[in-house]
Amino acid sequence: MEILKKAEKYNYADNRFVPKFNYQSQDNPNLIKIRKELKLDSIAGNGNELSKIFNLMHWVHNLIRHDGSSDNPTLKNAIDLIKVCKKENRGVNCRMLATILNECYLSLGIQSRYITCMPRETKFDDCHVINMVYSKELNKWIWIDPTFDAYVMDEKGNLLGIQEVRERLIKGQTLVLNADANWNREQLQTKEGYLETYMAKNLYRLQTPLKSAYDTETWKSGQEITYVELLPLDGIEQAPQKKEETYTETNVKFTIYKTNNPDLFWTKPE
């Protein structure tokens, strides 16, 4: 918490170039396949948008167990990840759970991104990946965590987004974790443990893919992946603002843009 409090300041005037975020259409053939094969319409149900968002989160959480020490499967899309977990009776890490849920949301026309939540250090042993999901009903982003089946509210029961949770943690304002938040249906989570300790460490800096789409985590030769990272002014590595690197083993090119402006990072879908 003390480290996070020092990271409160951003620069809302930072206008260095960051490309526009985009979200794959639910009409994409791969997303249509996910929607049909996984029977997501029946899982999401016939309720309002928020009930669909929560039904899908609960389903992914209950379907696949979290195993933070597991190796990632080769194919990292919703259908193949679920198949390999069933076949090998295994779990996956938080990044893969958020990837599965993200593709499920996109297949139903719900715009979302997965967010890598990281500590201050540039080299670390632990981070956490959750989803930011845009609710048209609420006209805002909301915090969705399939690993812990978790979402966060204020004292009035209003759903909060990642930026709001971060701000309220720093200012010591009231945060309410859903009572049934849990790890693998074995261990209930508390606000103190999950938010004030674990996520306080991991909300220092945030990174997300520029394009939210099917199969972005499967590294194929010739693929180009762009990420955007939101850094506080207290951040260690502020430069370069744009970094490009191609991994020779996979022939995948990674580009990372950095910004100190939360408004650019949390921009609403068009």
TrEMBL record:
Identification of the protein by name: Transglutaminase-like superfamily protein
Transglutaminase-like domain boundaries: 43-146
Gene3D superfamilies registered for this protein in UniProt: 3.10.620.30
One Pfam family hit: Transglut_core
